[in-house]
What we know:
This protein has helices at residues 4-10, 42-62, 66-69, 76-88, 104-110, and strands at residues 13-20, 25-30, 36-39, 92-98, 115-123. The protein is of the alpha+beta class and 131 residues long.
Amino acid sequence: xxxxxxxxxxxxxxxxxxxxxxxxxxxAQCLQTGHLVTADNVELAKEMIIELLEHEVTLAFQAxxxxxxxxxxxxxxxxxxxxxxSKQEKIxxxxxxxxxxxxxxxxxxxxxxxxxxxxxxxxGRTTARAA
Length: 131
């Protein structure tokens, strides 16, 4: 498998966080993978999505299947929301390290067995509107 193209899609991972006023919950969703989490506050949503992505991306590398990880991206409108939010505020940047054994081919390509990528989090409207 050619890891260079999928790896370019994962670095950086982009996450959009916003408050869902209908369900009164914070939603964090990764644009590239479509993974999402919900939480009672924005910081917990960020922590949970980072933990989920670290786990899921690690599993994809170990299984040598990055294409499966990228098969269900977030809806297009979320990409637009991320771009707008990223222009209006400072992006929350965090690093994740993929743990465990990666394939021999990937180790040869990267020169090491551990992979690190960046997660860039943009936050949209995070407070409920007055009813």
